[in-house]
Amino acid sequence: RHVGAGSTAADLACRAQYSAMANILDDTVGAIVDKLKAAGMWEDTLLVLSGDNGGPLILEESGATNWPLRGGKYTPWEGGVRAAAFVSGGAIPAGVRGTPVEVPIHAADWYATLCALAGVDPADARAAESGLPPVDGVDQWEALTTTPLASAQEVARGMTLSEGRVEAASARASAAAARRVLSQVAGDRVGCSSDEMLLASLAASREIPLDADSLLVGDLKLINATEVKFAVVAPKSFPNSTSKEVRNIARACAAKGGCLYDVAADPSEGDDIAEAHPHTVAAMMDRLASARAGFYSNDETGVDDCPGDTGGLPCACWTAVHRYGGFMGPYQK
Fold first, then answer.
1. What would the pLDDT profile of 216-243 be if each residue is shown by its tens digit?
2. Does residue 25 surpass a pLDDT of 70?
3. Strand order of the sheet with strand 220-223?
4. What is the pLDDT of residues 10-21, one digit of tens each?
5. What residues does 215 pair with on adjacent strands?
6. Whole-angstrom Cα distance, residue 75 to residue 140?
7. Is 73 exposed, middle or buried (0-12, 13-18, 19+ CB in 10 A)?
8. 85-88 and 160-162 strand pairing
9. Which residues contact 165 (CB under 8 A, 6 or more apart)?
10. Sign of CA dihedral 80, 81, 82, 88
11. Strand pairing partners for 262?
């Protein structure tokens, strides 16, 4: 609901419920941490808490704000894909506690990371026998336990500069950190344009497809969709009594040959740098096309396990109310 000076308790019911849910989560995590500490187990614990996506800007859904990021859930903008997450516990070295992780981490990386910590091979033989693609998550433990500067220096030590191009021996540092170190290594080398510098940084960066038309390589994001909706940075106060539908505020990236953003330097994605870096855009287009060829999607469909009449509730909500005491749970056969 929109919130304004004349808002009633009914208008604020959804926000009150959302706030209560966040408070319960906070209290529950705190209680678990207290129990682990009381049992002398906290120093041997790795706690991972992660969202799955940004909040939706759809007013009738929840009307979230991801300020200062652009867009929200269902979009490739940073407001949709840069989810909040943190790690804690005694397993995290004291020297990096309270510091940001500047390496892009995909949700699939947690599986590979936890397998590595447990000494378990992440390969899934049964999945392979069924024709499923291999696990493509990356062990990110090094990124979680070292500082960005240290990682960037490791990249720099593996770089060989030749005619404005760079070969990197490590891909652990973020592209932005690598570029900062590279600038120190290269100095003001004549003939090395900014486009060539960005091209060089791609070699030191992992690629993460965000959808069929969007690719993140290090800190560079290419978007080549025909229409990218919710292209707005919702203010902190969104939504309020004057908020309007923002779904159709869009950018036509494909029509101009693709949009390119440095999401480390420009997390709000306000500065499209594609025109100034055509070779980088072309290289990323090629990498996106190559990645797209390997996308996997099964043809299975779920069947809702609910009665014919749910009183207008989605099946997931009906099962939460009638089977799981108000908690979300399995709702399909």
1. 998 899 999 999 999 999 998 888 777 8
2. yes
3. 207-211, 214-217, 220-223, 259-262
4. 666 767 777 888
5. 209, 222
6. 25
7. buried
8. unpaired
9. 196, 199, 200, 203
10. positive
11. 220
Q: Residues, the chain, total?
A: 333
pTM over 0.85: no
Rg of the Cα atoms in the chain = 23
Single out the residue of 270, 274, 273 nearest to residue 67, CA to CA.
Answer: 270
56 in Cβ contact with 74 (< 8 Å): yes
Lookup: tokens for 229: 């909706």
